[in-house]
UniProtKB/TrEMBL annotation:
<dbReference type="InterPro" id="IPR015526">
    <property type="entry name" value="Frizzled/SFRP"/>
</dbReference>
<keyword id="KW-0732">Signal</keyword>
<keyword id="KW-1015">Disulfide bond</keyword>
<feature type="disulfide bond">
    <location>
        <begin position="103"/>
        <end position="127"/>
    </location>
</feature>
<dbReference type="GO" id="GO:0005615">
    <property type="term" value="C:extracellular space"/>
</dbReference>
<dbReference type="GO" id="GO:0060070">
    <property type="term" value="P:canonical Wnt signaling pathway"/>
</dbReference>
<keyword id="KW-0879">Wnt signaling pathway</keyword>
<dbReference type="InterPro" id="IPR008993">
    <property type="entry name" value="TIMP-like_OB-fold"/>
</dbReference>
<keyword id="KW-0964">Secreted</keyword>
<feature type="domain" description="FZ">
    <location>
        <begin position="22"/>
        <end position="140"/>
    </location>
</feature>
<protein>
    <submittedName>
        <fullName>Secreted frizzled-related protein 5</fullName>
    </submittedName>
</protein>
<dbReference type="GO" id="GO:0035567">
    <property type="term" value="P:non-canonical Wnt signaling pathway"/>
</dbReference>
<feature type="signal peptide">
    <location>
        <begin position="1"/>
        <end position="18"/>
    </location>
</feature>
<dbReference type="Pfam" id="PF01392">
    <property type="entry name" value="Fz"/>
</dbReference>
<comment type="similarity">
    <text>Belongs to the secreted frizzled-related protein (sFRP) family.</text>
</comment>
<dbReference type="GO" id="GO:0030154">
    <property type="term" value="P:cell differentiation"/>
</dbReference>
<dbReference type="InterPro" id="IPR020067">
    <property type="entry name" value="Frizzled_dom"/>
</dbReference>
Length: 283
């Protein structure tokens, strides 16, 4: 379940001081199979990298792929730039490391995701190791619009209550007492390496929209599943798809919290009746 994050931590376990900035380096093309850094904005990288990796196929590519699940959670918009600046540093006349400010920004957003899997922020990525802000490092420069800040965000949380075969009143009360209620089909597939991947299939249908945005909700739930892997594994068995009714709140700080999950099986007449009744129901 959490093996991907274990691999990511192992990939980051090599101390940065193992790289000697005075040693001989070479420039190589970022390979196509290194998908994590393929669209990072440059095409060539230095070897050895800042994590001390010198073998492209044996170290750099597999270790970069181990970071992909963390990046897919969207824990920080500059997480890719930070990690790729270490594992695939840009090939220029001088060595360009991430600035301390970039490390701090990414750490503060992504460390809680690792903590959700039971792991601390790696010591190898101690932000004090990186240079202070200057012209020779990659800084944290993205400015977020007020609109982006107002979008609901997923976070690590206690697993929501899962109730099979609920009574009609239970479902209707859940619609009444929560900010939103949606139906979503979640697919649990296994990657070639045998690790689980969760996907929200098709459209998310609104029963009660509340503060959710139509164009953002599918992506929001997808990120919630990637962050809360332990909860996701409880919901769907490997190789299966399951339709759910999900209810919850968007808290004052914009964090999405799922509180009730109803697996919707064909035999669950009460859920279908509750959705029909809701259109004319007064709480």
């Amino acid at each position: 379940m959490a093996t991907f994050f274990t691999m990511a931590l192992l990939a980051m376990a090599y101390p940065l001081k193992s790289f000697d900035i005075g040693q001989s380096t070479r420039c190589v093309a970022i390979p196509n199979q290194m998908k994590v850094c393929k669209d990072v904005g440059y095409s060539e990288m230095r070897l050895p990298n800042f994590l001390g990796h010198s073998n492209l196929e044996g170290e750099v590519v597999p270790r970069s792929e181990a970071w992909r699940p963390l990046l897919q959670t969207g824990c920080h918009p500059q997480a890719q730039a930070f990690f790729c600046s270490l594992i695939a540093p840009v090939c220029l006349d001088t060595f360009i490391q991430p600035c301390r400010s970039l490390c701090v920004a990414v750490r503060d957003s992504c460390a809680p995701v690792l903590a959700c899997q039971g792991y601390p922020w790696p010591e190898a990525l101690d932000c004090d190791r990186f240079p202070a802000e200057d012209d020779q490092c990659i800084s944290s420069h993205i400015k977020f619009s007020l609109f982006a800040k107002d979008l609901p965000k997923p976070a690590c949380q206690n697993c929501p209550s899962v109730e099979d075969g609920p009574a009609l009143k239970t479902v209707v009360d859940a619609f009444c007492h929560h900010d939103f209620a949606v139906t979503a089909k979640i697919h649990h597939r296994r990657l070639p390496m045998g690790e689980p991947e969760f996907e929200v299939e098709g459209r998310v249908e609104f029963i009660r929209q509340g503060p959710l945005l139509p164009y953002d909700t599918q992506h929001l739930l997808q990120q919630w599943l990637l962050i809360n892997l332990q909860c996701a594994n409880i919901l769907v068995r490997p190789g299966r798809s399951q339709l759910f009714v999900l209810t919850g709140f968007v808290q004052r700080d914009g964090i999405l919290a799922l509180t009730h999950v109803f697996p919707w099986h064909k035999k669950d007449v009460n859920i279908a009746v509750a959705i029909r009744k809701w259109k004319h129901h007064r709480c």
